[in-house]
C-alpha cells in the first residue's frame, strides 16, 4: 500500500504546531513557578506554607530562611 505523500506535509505541520504549543505551555508554567514543576495534591499544610512563603518572599514558590525587615 503506497504512502499518500500529499498528506505528509499537513501531518507534519499539525505535529509541529501541537508540539510547539505544548512546549510553550510547559515553559510558561515553569516560568510562573520560578522554574519548578507544578504542585499536585496540595493539602492544608502546603497551603499554610505557601501563605508563609508569600509573606516572606513575595511569591508562593519562593523559599527563604531569613526574615525580611519591616
TrEMBL record:
Keywords assigned: Electron transport, Membrane, Mitochondrion, Mitochondrion inner membrane, Respiratory chain, Transmembrane, Transmembrane helix, Transport
Protein's recorded name: NADH dehydrogenase [ubiquinone] 1 alpha subcomplex subunit 1
InterPro entries named among the record's database cross-references: NADH_Ub_cplx-1_asu_su-1
Family (UniProt): Belongs to the complex I NDUFA1 subunit family.
Ranges annotated as spanning the membrane: 7-27
Localisation per UniProt entry: Mitochondrion inner membrane
Function recorded in the entry: Accessory subunit of the mitochondrial membrane respiratory chain NADH dehydrogenase (Complex I), that is believed not to be involved in catalysis. Complex I functions in the transfer of electrons from NADH to the respiratory chain. The immediate electron acceptor for the enzyme is believed to be ubiquinone.
The organism of origin for this protein: Armillaria borealis
Taxonomic placement: Eukaryota, Fungi, Dikarya, Basidiomycota, Agaricomycotina
Bilayer disposition of the protein: Single-pass membrane protein
GO cellular component: mitochondrial inner membrane
